[in-house]
């Protein structure tokens, strides 16, 4: 709807939130990927990792560096990363294509090991998706979108208990939005309900 204050109408006539309305990379990510269900182990692990790296930075920065992240971290294969040692940490700290933060790099390795261990108990994806709430937000404007929820707090707590790092409640809420567990598309957006998980 053109008069909806929560969305911006693009040249293509489609309604998007302001953050996805200008930058072509963000617009494509929003239109094709963000909020769509991700249920495979590697896909969930990658997004847990990238959301952790995003903390304190813009998502656009992480998205632009995603190809370099995938190359540097062996396409986010948990088994491969679980075997990383200090030489790999040094290699990653020297890689100008990624965010060079030792704590986040070391957390990525710990999280890979924790992901492998979780396979004996249902796996990472099943654990994360088990925190899907009964309802999803229905935001009209960006300010209506929460940044955490009881489920994201509980998921954060459980992942920490399982040995994960950089999985705070706000980061986990962003993960839940990104992989379709929640639908926080604005009500006026052309993507509302596109995941098939939640009704429009």
TrEMBL record:
Pfam families recorded for this chain?
A: Adenine_glyco
* Keyword hit for Mitochondrion: no
Q: Which InterPro entries match?
A: Adenine_glyco, DNA-3mA_glycosylase, DNA_glycosylase
Output the Gene Ontology terms for molecular function. DNA-3-methyladenine glycosylase activity; metal ion binding
Q: Sorted alphabetically, which SUPFAM superfamilies does this protein's record hold?
A: DNA-glycosylase
Positions that bind Zn(2+): 185
- Please identify the protein, giving its name as recorded: 3-methyladenine DNA glycosylase
- Taxonomic placement: Bacteria, Bacillati, Actinomycetota, Actinomycetes, Micromonosporales
